[in-house]
Specification:
The protein is built from 15 helices and five strands. By secondary structure, the chain is mainly α. Strand 1, helix 2 and strand 2 form a beta-alpha-beta unit. Helix 5 packs across helix 9, helix 5 runs parallel beside helix 15 and helix 11 runs antiparallel to helix 14. The N terminus is likely disordered.
Length: 356
């Protein structure tokens, strides 16, 4: 039988475990285009550490999707797969509680994507707000790669393959989740089945973290982020270079809190919210300097990142490979099971009961 039709005893054992698991399934992931940063930490990584105790959590290394941007430089994606996994483990994601897998190694996801392509029009993809925004940013003009345009369909395959009901992500991903649910409803209605499940977006309590330059969101590509693996010296340098209020020249000058990157980071990382409110009031009146605020923020971030960086330094490539291999093996079995159900719903399961 093909890879997607595997029915070994080991696979059945995993399948039965999945079927009997009463927990809802959560799916999330990252494109391996660089090390992860504080924006990832507040946006999703903290939630994943909590979710692994509440949900049957799958975390995908989205290398196939990363190739839609880096098809001419696949080595960048390849080199960063284990960098991302290292960040996962360093922040406290436990591979015995969360299934970490590599997207490209699961053929069932590509098969599902192909089936779903028949349920979505090009015009619908082009109207997707997330796609429209990214198309404008990348200036493709009339040379849009098909792989990029079909990204929402691929994401739908990822989510539905594991029957995920919870997808932790940023608000910008909402249109993609809605498109996934449109596909689910159309498939289930067309083939009179309930094989696929709709998903709900779980938003972080913290909005998108702005970059240290204050000009855009923290980003790997823009290099305006504080990375989880940055040294203490680099963290301090980045904090002290943060954009504040250009009109706040002297300590006695009244300052603006809005769009002040230092306060944005204090809001995100300081647990004592009352203290931050007092500092904001003082800053607005005048009498509080930027250096004092940056010193405070530096201390908070150093205390947060030092143990993460230390745990990361203790990881070995052999262990990372084994974790990804075992996670991918489990994820492959679950996705294969969904594909079998999808084939049966469509009616194209011709040889399922024949040993070839």
């Amino acid at each position: 039988m093909s890879d997607s039709g595997s029915n070994s005893k080991e696979d059945n054992k995993i399948n039965n475990h999945s079927i009997n698991n009463s927990k809802k399934v959560s799916l999330t992931g990252d494109r391996p285009t660089g090390r992860l940063h504080l924006g990832h930490f507040v946006g999703s990584l903290k939630s994943r550490v909590e979710f692994q105790h509440q949900y049957d959590q799958y975390i995908m290394i989205a290398d196939t999707q990363a190739l839609t941007d880096y098809f001419e430089n696949p080595q960048r994606v390849i080199d960063n797969v284990y960098e991302v996994v290292s960040d996962y483990l360093a922040v406290g994601i436990d591979p015995t509680l969360s299934t970490i897998f590599i997207q490209s190694q699961i053929k069932a996801l590509s098969e599902l994507t192909m089936y779903y392509m028949n349920l979505v029009t090009v015009s619908r993809l082009e109207r997707n707000p997330t796609v429209k925004t990214e198309l404008a940013q990348k200036s493709f003009a009339q040379s849009v790669p098909v792989g990029f345009l079909c990204y929402p369909i691929s994401q739908a395959a990822d989510i539905t393959a594991f029957k995920a009901e919870i997808v932790p992500a940023g608000e910008d991903q909402a249109p993609l989740i809605e498109q996934t649910n449109e596909i689910v409803r159309k498939f289930n209605g067309l083939y009179k089945t309930n094989v696929l499940k709709e998903a709900k977006l779980h938003l972080s309590n913290t909005g998108r973290l702005v970059g240290i330059d204050g000009k855009a969101k923290a980003s790997k590509s823009l290099n305006n982020a504080i990375f989880l693996s940055d040294t203490s010296e680099v963290i301090k340098e980045k904090v002290y270079s943060m954009y504040t209020d250009p009109d706040h020249i002297k300590v006695s000058d009244p300052g603006k809190v809005e769009n002040n990157v230092v306060f944005t980071y204090l809001d995100a990382f300081c647990e004592n919210k009352e203290e931050i409110d007092v500092l904001k009031s003082q800053y607005r009146k005048g009498g509080l300097g930027d250096v004092a605020l940056k010193s405070m923020l530096n201390k908070i971030l150093q205390d947060l990142l030092e143990p993460i960086r230390e745990r990361r330094s203790q990881l070995h490539r052999k262990d990372l490979i084994e974790i990804c291999f075992e996670g991918t093996k489990k994820a492959k079995t679950i996705a294969n099971q969904t594909v079998q159900e999808v084939r049966e719903a469509i009616g194209i399961n011709f040889f399922e009961k024949i040993q070839l």
